[in-house]
């Protein structure tokens, strides 16, 4: 099956890199294709080299391929709405913040640094033709239990990764979002002070 082509380029106020303007979060994943392991590895490598305060790299990932018990456990941790579509993703990744060092010191920037690592992952994945959708709708305690995470680690986001599928295969209520106009708050409303 060939990957459907859909131009979702953002209508930016100012020119940005094509990979950034073109990045978007689908819910329509191809439920048949397996992940291209080289592309997945490249995205994880991009995350590995994200900026990190003091080079602490306070992030970890759980990577689960569709068809594995681990993938099913992650699907089970999702809220019902996300279960409707995310199970089709070739890979589900749990992004984990290391909020405290092994010796008990708080890592105040852990969530920020994890976000940068996931952003690097997303841009690399999109550049290579994979689509990424990040979700907050999951139960971190379910992940903590099946992954046996120490208290110093916090499951923060679940990331669906894969190739574009057919939007018509989504539940009716989700289909419109795949082609609806892309909108963002204007820069003038985002920058609250500028001198």
Quick recap of the structure?
It contains eight helices and four strands; from the N terminus they run ααβααβαβαβαα. The chain is α+β, with helices and mostly antiparallel strands and 195 residues long.
Report on this structure.
With 195 residues, the chain is of the alpha+beta class. A four-stranded antiparallel sheet has the order 1-2-4-3, sandwiched between helices. It is globular, with a radius of gyration of 17 Å.
Query: Which class of secondary structure composition applies to the elements?
Result: alpha+beta
Rounded radius of gyration (Å): 17 Å
Q: How far from one another are the termini? A: 53 Å
What is the number of E strands?
Answer: 4
Largest sheet: 4 strands, antiparallel
Q: Please indicate the percent range of residues in DSSP E strands (runs of 2 or more).
A: 15-25%
- The spatial strand order of the largest sheet comes to 1-2-4-3
Low-confidence stretches: none
The helix fraction, in percent, is 25-40%
Broad shape: globular
What is the number of helices?
8
Mean pLDDT across every amino acid position:
93
Q: Helix and strand string, N-terminal first?
A: HHEHHEHEHEHH
Write the layout of secondary structure elements.
Elements: H1 18-22, H2 37-48, E1 59-65, H3 69-77, H4 80-86, E2 91-98, H5 110-127, E3 131-135, H6 140-147, E4 153-162, H7 172-175, H8 187-190
Antiparallel strand pairs: 1-2, 2-4, 3-4
Helix pairs in contact: 2-5, 3-6
Please give a handful of descriptors for the protein shown.
8 helices, globular, 195 residues, alpha+beta, four-stranded antiparallel sheet
């Amino acid at each position: 099956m060939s990957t459907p082509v859909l131009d979702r380029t953002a209508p930016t106020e100012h020119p940005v890199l094509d990979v950034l303007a073109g990045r978007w979060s689908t819910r329509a994943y191809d439920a048949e294709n397996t992940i291209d392991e080289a592309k997945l590895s490249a995205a994880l490598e991009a995350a590995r080299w994200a900026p990190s305060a003091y080079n602490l790299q306070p992030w970890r990932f759980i990577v689960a391929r569709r068809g594995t018990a681990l993938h099913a456990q992650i699907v089970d941790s999702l809220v019902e709405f996300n279960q409707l579509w995310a199970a089709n993703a070739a890979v589900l990744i749990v992004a984990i913040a290391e909020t405290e060092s092994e010796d008990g010191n708080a890592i105040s920037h852990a969530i920020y640094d994890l976000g940068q690592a996931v952003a690097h992952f997303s841009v690399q994945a999109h550049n290579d033709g994979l689509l990424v959708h990040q979700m907050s709708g999951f139960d971190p305690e379910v992940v903590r239990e099946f992954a046996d995470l120490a208290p110093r680690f916090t499951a923060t986001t679940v990331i669906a990764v894969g190739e574009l599928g057919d939007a018509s295969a989504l539940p009716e209520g989700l289909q419109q979002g795949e082609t609806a106009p892309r909108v963002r708050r204007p820069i003038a409303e985002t920058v609250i002070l500028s001198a």
